[in-house]
Amino acid sequence: MALGHRQPGLVTECASLDALRQRFGRLNRGGRKLPARGIIVMRGDQVKKSDDDPVYGPALAATWKWLCKQAHQGEVNFGVVAMNRVLQRLRPTEIARLRVPTSHAPVMLPAHVDCWVQTMPEPSPSPDVSLFLHGPQRGEPEVHLCWRADLSPANEARAEDRWTNTLVLCPPAAAECLSVPLWRIREWLRGGQPQLLSLADVEAREPETEVESPARLRVQALC
Length: 223
Known about the structure:
elongated
């Protein structure tokens, strides 16, 4: 095919309808008069049900089934105008099934931006960026765990004061800290052994039942 007449193309895994529209918006975004086509693929075990998908949940299978019904000779027009016409005929409840539920985020004020642009020294207080990226109450809360070998034993007199003074003189650095789910730390502080291998790199909720372990650990921690 001659240079300058290449046909834009896109191959993507299936996702919720709003995510697919965003991806197809990058296909021939310049609006050139060229035929632009994309291919959507789907895992066979999620065609009927995708409740276990950690990102899109039930919306993944619902979107795939809806696209199959809308397809004409195996094709769906993802153009902005054409897709808007189709969606205008749907009820709000039907559209909601094709999208991932959105979480509410706090309102970003100019004061927040003023604090974030100050990196050295870091302002106090410093607004939490994750609230604006992911919204509140999403996933499980985390704490930063730091191991220190320069603290005196906890059974010594005024050990807590010595710990505080030591940490004031040499505070923990970000590179020394490990981000751990809060409920895992609570389980560990109570003397159990959390199943660290079961941790996943996806957002999840705290399990309804905790893992019990006959082994007990003596934990010395300063919160």
